[in-house]
Sequence to fold (340 residues):
Amino acid sequence: MNMDKIRERARLQAKGACRVCRQCDGRICSGEVPGMGGAGTGLSFRHNFDALATLRFKTKLVHQVHFPKTEKEIFGFKLSFPVMIAPIGGLAFNLNRAMDEAEYQEAVVMGAQDAGIVSGTPDAAPMEVMQLGLAQAAKTSGRALPFIKPWEPGEIAEKLSMAKEAGCKTAAVDLDSIGLITLRLMGRPAYPKSVIELAAIVDSAHQRGMKLIIKGVMTAEDALDCLTAGVDGLVVSNHGGRVLDSAPGTAEVLPLVARAVEGAVPVLVDGGVRSGGDVLKMLALGADCVMIGRPFAIAAVGGGREGVAHYAETLRSQLEQVMIMTGCPDVAEAGPHLLT
Ligand SMILES: Cc1cc2nc3c(=O)[nH]c(=O)nc-3n(C[C@H](O)[C@H](O)[C@H](O)COP(=O)(O)O)c2cc1C
Fold:
């Protein structure tokens, strides 16, 4: 198994819904939502990629880092390196049925387990999507991170119970899904939440002995409101550029959010991360862990569970290499000093 073969196979399977470009930067697929692109002009997706591309590493060669430490523990998960697979749902309408939804969830959850990392699982208008991800989570005794859409409180509570039953100890709400055109097209739009409403969702998770993360935070202001509501973690994300056109790249806003949070809860980030070097850039900007979406979807479609584990191992070894070249002994010690 190698990445070229995985990508070639994924290109065939996707039948045009994703061109599997050499650089997955959102240029060719602008506006393709449903699809794999960014919403509208696609600028938000491109900003994610471009914001990372403009960052430069400081080379450091005089040091003694031979075997950098990449392991990380977060939300009770022991990770071989600080990466999780971002939740991706709706392969039928987004990726031209390139893969059956159940097979996809199996590939990412089990492939992540093989590689010592963890996958997010998605939620969507049809209940089945959440159930398929949780069925895989149950097989791994809850080694998955389920994401729930910002529905009405009753449905969120029901889905938290389902996640707990699958063995999950932490769940997330992708609050930015209020901007998703796909939910509106299905007649199931979701709406913003006040701090009080968010606090009630957090309480509902805590009552079940679970932690709750909010995904989609792009400003220090929203981050502080989430902290007031009592959340246990944040994901800086613009949903891969799919919910608001002309949003900044996540690497641009991550330092502001991390500074506002001041270590009170873990801060995760996603958007445009493609290599181990990109992972280290996000850690240097203040992330505790990094999520990756589309490239793992391509790895799953082109290589199944093995493809996912292979891509993860490629990322881990790239990360190790860049840590040696920047003199970074431990992912816990990554910081702005690694960048020019
Ligand atoms: C086709 C597609 C489906 C997605 N479905 C979900 C979802 O169900 N829940 C969610 O929180 N995010 C979803 N996302 C967003 C990803 O979790 C993630 O935020 C984004 O893909 C990260 O950007 P990247 O793909 O550039 O790595 C989806 C993204 C894509 C491309």
